[in-house]
Amino acid sequence: MAEIAVMALYDQIIDNHGEFLEGLRHRFLDEDRKSALQKFESIGFPTKKDEEYKYTNIKEITEKNYNFFPKESHNITKEQFDELHLGEENFDWIVFVNGKLHKELSKVSIENVEFLSFNYALNDENHKEVFEKYFNTIADGNSAFTDLNLAYCKYGFFLKVPKNVVIEKPIHVFYISQNQEENTFYNTRNLLIVEDGAKVEIIESHHNFDDTFVLTNSVTEIFTYPNAKADWHKLQNDNDTSYLVDSTFAKQEKDSLTTVNTFTFGGKLVRNNLDFIHNGSNINSFMNGITIIGKDQLVDHHTAVHHKTPNCESYQNYKGIFKDNAHGVFNGKVFVDKIAQKTNAYQQNNNVLLNEGATIDTKPQLEIFADDVKCSHGCTVGQLNEDALFYLRARGISKKEAQALLLYAFANDAMQNIDIEPLKEKVSKLLAEKLNVDIEF
Known about the structure:
The chain is α/β, with parallel strands linked by helices. It has helices at about 1-5, 10-20, 30-45, 60, 80-85, 120-125, 130-135, 145-150, 385-395, 400-410, 420-435; strands at about 90-95, 100, 115, 155-160, 170-175, 185-195, 200-210, 215-225, 230-235, 240-250, 255-265, 270-280, 285-295, 300-305, 315-320, 325-335, 345-355, 360-370, 375-380. The chain folds into two domains: about 10-280, no CATH class; about 385-440, no CATH class. One of its GO terms (biological process) is iron-sulfur cluster assembly.
């Protein structure tokens, strides 16, 4: 514990948690918040001695002091905000600036659904039963970051899509930090409930406009009911003074489909924790990721799929391109229970290192206790194919352009299941931009 206690953020939390709790009064959560802080105090932040953080040193994050209650005022201009859009004029969007929901910047046309800011929903007596039924029921309570989120969560949104309601327009959720004079710690919390036969698509992005550091500790819980479909796309392209720890948990019932796509192009340190829980037959789960980073950035993907029931499928496809002194981590786990016969699970992680200083630690894992399954996993780490590179150069393409085209093709298949054209185009453009190549769309 002594090794952990010297960290600035840890000391700040332990010394001042009474003051923090005073500003976070939410009915039934008071005792849970105190309990979560007590658990955090006994466990502390993970270190490289912890297996789950063996390759990810978070000392850079925890040695800083942060302001837990950001200044609400901002001066975001329309031009700045427009640059964040994907060209999605026909979308709905929800905008949080410095933690607060701004209706004047948002566009919400969805009907027949329950949509509230998280803070409002916590204080709304009409949603008490819903929160007690769903809130924090699938989020992992054995993590320092999920414990901290439970203790301090205030920002984010609650969305319940009723039975057989199909939301035709994707919803883009923007989390923006601006006008902060101190390093700022956001604990965002999202709760999505998609009832029988319903359908919704969410895009989530985080943006720091300041030179001060921002640590976003986000927890999302997704509940997908029978014959429902929920897609959640994470577009991570923040600046070099941004840290993101994202923990997403998805619980699916029979005949449902849930997708989480994670596209990571920016941020100083990004940790993505993704857990899928199967709770019925004929479930389909899709997890795709593209990571392109350089300099001394670090991106860590930790995924887990819990096959608890028969006749279900899961598909994981993560691609990574690393240059300069960037560091990538992938740890994908598939658990197949004894009763989960006829499981079909696929897991693949492919990586390209462009410089000697770039590194990737990859560890796909299968734990199978059923005997009638089709499960496969694999990983590759290497450089570009020299024969393919020679083929392109022999046709008059420069070495730089040939390399970029091969890398673009390498990453492209991880976004084939995106059915939102503006998002697919945005990811394609970011790919081309990061690879310094001109590609027509």
